[in-house]
Amino acid sequence: MKIIIEAYKPEWKTAFDQERHLLMDAINVPDISIEHIGSTSVVGLGAKPIIDIMIGIRDFNQDNHHIKAMESLGYNYISKYEDEMPYRRFFTKTSNGKRTHHIHMVQIHTEFWDRHLRFRDHLRENQEARNSYLELKLNLAEKEWADINDYADAKTAFIREIEEKTAKGDN
């Protein structure tokens, strides 16, 4: 499988904003936070054209109540990762046979929530890190992958390094 990295497109922010409004209406609970994460959320960073969204909810014990609302918007609930990550609910959306959105639903202000936002914000604020990440992604995209998760795993060391650095307050 080949990974296609597209140049940054301003339409990705528009797509997130539109989806955010749909999600707010469908989930309809107080104290929800919906964040654009992943490479499509970073101006100037090339990415797979899939909008990554993180939904933070206050009471994760209520997470399964939101599955039907997500499915009503055309999302597929993927439960197979819950053994590894019981603190996250994962959803995908497709259009014309292609994935368009990934959603990670987690409890707000958890380690998962915080590290994803720190990584995104670091890439937004640090051109050198953004350029290094893009270079890594483009090099990895030249390879043939058995699975999309293998490609994601190949980026993990870079991501963890930034997450550790930002957790310490280093920029």
Automatic annotation (TrEMBL):
Return the InterPro entries for the record. Answer: GrpB/CoaE (IPR007344), NT_sf (IPR043519)
Q: Which residues cross the membrane?
A: none
Pfam families in alphabetical order: GrpB
Q: Which Gene3D superfamilies match?
A: Beta Polymerase, domain 2 (3.30.460.10)
User: What name goes with this protein?
Assistant: GrpB family protein
The species this protein belongs to is Agaribacillus aureus
